[in-house]
Amino acid sequence: MDTLDATAIARIQFGLNIGFHILFPAITIALGWILVGFRVQYARTGNPEWLATYQRWTKVFALSFAMGVVTGIVMSFQFGTNWPGYMNKVGNIAGPLLAYEVLTAFFLEATFLGVMLFGMRRVPGWVHLLATVLVAVGTTISAFWILALNSWMHTPAGHVIADGELIAGNWWEVIFNPSFPYRLTHMLLASGLTAAFLVAGLSAWRLLKAADDTAAKKTLRTGVLIAFVLAPVQIFMGDLHGLNTLEHQPAKIAAVEALWQTEHGAPLVLFAIPNEATRTNDFAIEIPKGASLILRHDRDAEIKGIEAFAPNTPPVAPVFFAFRVMVGVGMLMLLVSAVGTWRLRGNRTPPRWLLWIFAGFTFSGWVATLAGWLVTEIGRQPWLVTGVLRTADAVGAVSEAKLGASLTGYIITYSIMLIAYVVVLTHLAGSGSTKAPVGPGSITAEGLL
Amino acid sequence: MTLDLPLIFTGLMGLAILAYVVLDGYDLGVGMLMPAADENEHNVMVASIGPFWDANETWLVLGVGILLVAFPVAHGVILGALYLPTVAMLIGLMFRGAAFEFRIKAEGWHRELWNWLFWFGSFLASFAQGIMLARYITGFHSGFGYFIFSIIVGGALCGSYVLLGATWLIIKTDGLLQKKALAWAKWGLIWTTLAIAVVSVVTPLVSETVRHKWFDFPHTLALMLLPAASTAIIAYVGITLRRLSRGSSTQEWIPFAGSVAMFALAFAGLAYSLFPYIVIDRLTIWEAAAHPSSLKFVLVGVLVVVPLIILYTAFSYRVFWGKARAGLYE
User: Fold this and answer.
1) pLDDT in tens, A97-127
2) How many CA atoms, within 13 angstroms, populate the side-chain half-sphere of residue A358?
3) Which site from A1, A103, A140, B39 is most exposed, i.e. has the minimal number of CB atoms within 10 Å?
4) Average pLDDT over residues B232-255
5) How far is residue A378's CA from residue A288's CA, in Å, rounded to a whole number?
């Protein structure tokens, strides 16, 4: 392979940053609401076990949130450092959406996180509960704006072109662009599943070390139940999202299906190795007419192949494989959560093999989320904004040497942080709390120290 | 009446950046002071900034966000030219942000490592911000003299943040740690004084544009109010620090307020030097401005939301009023 050009390094770098960043919002968006649930349970019952549970999981939340903040700051700078062409061309649309995220969400979550983490003994209980709710609201609003921008890049709408720049003609149409409702719902559900499996997984780790931890039993059940409810909804939503993509970004679907030529009665390719050189699939295992049936609900319907979109075609193999990883992990998550729900029915004690399975699935949400993200982002190539701006036209003039040096810096930083994150999380799960939890508004000897 | 939107957004961006420099400045300063304290003091120091640092850093995102929204072309030019110090700052901020969470959950040498990374990240981010400032006000010129100037401003900004951090600790601590903070603040004050003097003298020397603006005779007299006011504040802060170290316990907030005022004055001086450029000698704020439709859309949000942000920020400072204590959240 030749040396990488600046566009390639800039893409790898940005992809790495977003890929690393997305891991943490994927947890916090839904975990914020799970915390609200724990906090409400404590307020309702007064049971100190719920309080201990809440406090244990606020630590996980705080850690994930901090990682999301610092990696998010990196992204806000990289729009300018790596993609000046993006800001020049669509800055009038992207800028305001990002600004609204900071204004309406970021300050809200960052400020009330302080109250939520450190203020339990300083504010009345209801204020503390409200702070917890506001943090969850903040993370959700944040997702709303980011997904609005991302969706707009996939299915741009509501803009007009003036002097070669895009400006918004109708902000409502910009925000509620054709793929936005599907993409937002898909992401929120993905976060729900990621957080649910994290909660279940870390609780399972805890129970493997201390089988009598009744609080961990509660959180295991919570995680498993949430996953079991959300998994089928997500599969249904994913299907709707796919149909929406077929309508607006058919080239992406052609890559997902590894369908090179336009066909009537296109097959569903279960497995293959897509071959870009020969434009065929090697070692293909197919269900005849399957793709037409799933996508058009008609065995003989026409599905457009990659060829139909040349030269604006995404790379096929990464999209094809990433899609299968996402769907495969999603199906396993459904299966595992169903088995878990069955085995835990009526407050039964979980068998050790089940605990090991859930422990193994702790970070399964990350795998599915990252795979799904690769499908959608690589599937949009060669466009940065579909039909409007090519990725290659947005790259800046930063030299390859500088990009390479900073890429190395980022890789080292992210590796250290990711390892530390996983180690600390499993450590938190394994270690038991010896201190009695302290309720809101009450001053104790410890609080006065 | 038509609104001068680029001017309004320049003002907003200036306020966001000033808010960032003051707010994250004190917590970065506390981070840089870590090696001068012992283990128990570390916990008190981190506890004094723990509830606030997330929101403090948000002002940086807002500042960059406004640059991106209001002046998209300048966003690319500035951040492209400041690429490496920007990356260094970001890596510093990442280590530091992660260290906040990791250090209290780690034990033994792990904790030591995260303490060290917390210090290092604070220092790297502060120093890189100084370099960015120097490169920005000198129009991104390269050469040995500019390089030396960048290093000096990098160090100077660290010193100024240490002053903010130390004067913050005077408010938030007591006993032996407060005594230490008073000593740190004295050093910080000397550093900051030198820093302001060096930047004020060197900037007109390296930039003709700045020189013209400051030494344009009738204006010069009015402008001399800025250094005069700075000198008066520095003297007053110095006197207060001495009084406090002799055991007076009133007026603990004066050194911090005085430091903030110094930052505001220095900032006003810089703003005067640069205006109306967003990229000095190259791009004015009107040339770089985004389309009015975008600016109006964001302005509505700013007018509605920023008062709310100020309200709940004030609420959060009210909740955590008083001296910091170690171990509130472990």
Assistant:
1) 888 888 888 888 888 988 888 888 888 888 8
2) 38
3) A1
4) 83
5) 27
Q: What are phi and psi of A206, to 5 degrees?
A: -60, -45
Give the one of A77, A91, A92 whose C-beta lies nearest to B64's C-beta.
Answer: A77
pTM (2 d.p.): 0.84
Say how far apart CA B200 and CA B202 lie, in whole Å.
6
Dihedral angle of Cα A96, A97, A100, A102, to the nearest 10 degrees: -100
Which residues in chain B touch residue A70, judged by CB atoms under 8 angstroms apart? 57, 90, 93-94, 96-98
Contacts of A449 (CB under 8 A, 6+ apart): B325, B326, B327
Joined tokens for residue B281: 């000698």
First-to-last alpha carbon distance for chain A, in angstroms, is 62
Contacts of A112 in chain B (CB under 8 A): 312, 316
Extract the runs of DSSP E, i.e. beta strands, from chain B. Answer: 277-279, 283-284
Check B80 against A81: CB less than 8 A apart: yes
Calculate the CA dihedral of residues A361, A367, A369, A375 and round it to 10 degrees. Answer: -150
B218, B225 Cβ separation under 8 angstroms: no
pLDDT beyond 50 at B32: yes
Q: Which residues contact B251 (CB under 8 A, 6 or more apart)?
A: B240, B243, B244
pLDDT tens, position by position, B272-298 = 888 888 887 788 888 888 888 888 888
Region for A347 from its dihedrals, namely left if φ exceeds 0, alpha if ψ lies in -120 to 50, beta otherwise: left
Segment A225-271, tens digit of pLDDT:
999 999 889 988 888 888 888 888 888 888 888 778 787 878 888 78
Mean pLDDT, chain B, as a whole number?
Answer: 84
To test the contact with chain B by mutation, choose from A111, A166, A173, A398 the residue with the greatest count of B C-beta atoms within 10 A, namely A111
Q: Which residue of A has its CA nearest to B87?
A: A406
The 10s digit of each residue's pLDDT in B288-326 is: 888 888 888 888 888 888 888 888 888 888 888 877 776
Give the three-state DSSP class for B294. Answer: helix
DSSP codes joined into one string, A327-355: HHHHHHHHHHHHHHHHHTGGGPPPPHHHH
Using N-to-C axis directions, what is the helix angle for B109-137 and B254-274, rounded to 10°? 40
Average of per-residue pLDDT across B83-104: 84
DSSP H helices in A249-389: 250-256, 290-296, 316-343, 352-360, 364-378
Q: Which of A84, A90, A79 is nearest to A165 (CA)?
A: A90
Nearest to A261 by CA among A314, A305, A291, A300: A305
Contact A118 B83 (CB under 8 A): no
Secondary element (H or E) of residue A269: strand A268-275
**How far is the C-alpha of B268 from the C-alpha of B234, rounded, in Å?**
16
Compute the distance between CA of residue B56 and CA of residue B52 in angstroms, rounded to an integer. Answer: 6
Residue B302: which H helix or E strand, with range?
helix B292-319
Residues of B in contact with A76 (CB under 8 A): 61, 64-65, 68
pLDDT exceeding 70 applies to what percent of chain B? 97
Cβ(A245)–Cβ(A150) below 8 Å: no
CB-based contacts of B144, cutoff 8 Å, min separation 6: none
Q: Output the pLDDT for position B2.
A: 66
Q: In a mutagenesis test of the A interface, which of B57, B64, B101 is the best target, namely the one with the most A β-carbons within 10 Å?
A: B101
Contact status of B316 with chain A (Cβ, < 8 Å): yes
Q: What is the pLDDT of residues B146-184, one digit of tens each?
A: 888 889 889 989 999 999 999 999 888 888 888 888 889
d(Cα B161, Cα B163) in Å, to the nearest integer? 5
Give the torsion through C-alpha atoms of A425, A429, A433, A439, to 10 deg: 70
Residues 6+ apart with CB under 8 A from B33: B45, B162, B165, B166, B169, B184
Q: What ipTM did this prediction achieve?
A: 0.82
Q: Which residues contact A60 (CB under 8 A, 6 or more apart)?
A: A27, A31, A198, A202, A425, A428
